[in-house]
Amino acid sequence: MATERIIIGISGASGFQYGYKALELLKPLAHIETHLVISKGAQLTRQYETDISEADLLALADVVHPIENLGASIASGSFKTRGMLIAPCSMRTLASVAHGFSDNLLTRAADVILKERRRLVLMVRETPLHLTHLDNMRKVTEMGGIIFPPVPALYHQPQSVDEIITHSTARALDLFDIDLNIKRWEGK
């Protein structure tokens, strides 16, 4: 099977663990090459919310791109990928994507994904929402992106926060046709 690529973006919203979990879930899949871009805000959130080291994070990605490198491979539409997951997605990143501000590699890569009509999934993390947040979500949806707030499913009776994060992240990766054998609703 040929290697396929997926871009994982991590922005500065609370919930750094979602992006980390995406990389962790994808690491054992030899046919998927992960490309990571992480914002400066996300690095701060990592330090505030977790005990995950930068080295542990970077070790999970196949390729790491500096946020300032607008000349990186993922900034070009000729670089083929399955798409991009931004987990978590801050309201600043959402606004940048909605309005086409390609001011760093994270938002430029998302812009490229949209223009190439590839899959863009944003795990937006903010509540409550005001009208600008909702309008930006609408704009991204109209451009073909998918808004995927990490709202926990409880039907699988999670026993830990990690199980909730794993399930939400795996469901987001489902949108890229990556099946991670999670417990699914089967009806009653």
Descriptive account of the structure:
- With 188 residues, the protein is α/β, with parallel strands linked by helices.
- It is built from seven helices and six strands.
- It has helices spanning 16-26, 40-49, 54-60, 91-98, 105-115, 131-142, 161-174; strands spanning 4-10, 32-38, 63-65, 83-89, 119-124, 146-147.
- Strands 3-2-1-4-5-6 form a six-stranded parallel beta sheet, with helices on both faces.
- Helix 1 packs across helix 7 (161-174) and helix 4 (91-98) crosses helix 6.
- It is globular, with a radius of gyration of 16 Å.
- The N and C termini lie far apart (37 Å).
Question: Any key phrases for this structure?
Answer:
188 residues; alpha/beta; six-stranded parallel β-sheet; 6 strands; 17% strand; 39% helix
In short:
The protein has helices at 16-26, 40-49, 54-60, 91-98, 105-115, 131-142, 161-174, and strands spanning 4-10, 32-38, 63-65, 83-89, 119-124, 146-147. It is of the alpha/beta class and 188 residues long.
- State the separation between the terminal residues, measured CA to CA: 37 Å
Biggest sheet architecture = 6 strands, parallel
How helix-rich are the residues, as a percent range?
Answer: 25-40%
> Please, what is the average pLDDT?
95
Strand order of the largest sheet: 3-2-1-4-5-6
Q: Measured on Cα atoms, how large is the radius of gyration?
A: 16 Å
Instruction: Bin the strand percentage.
Output: 15-25%
Could you state the oligomeric state of the chains shown?
single chain
User: SSE string, helix = H, strand = E?
Assistant: EHEHHEEHHEHEH
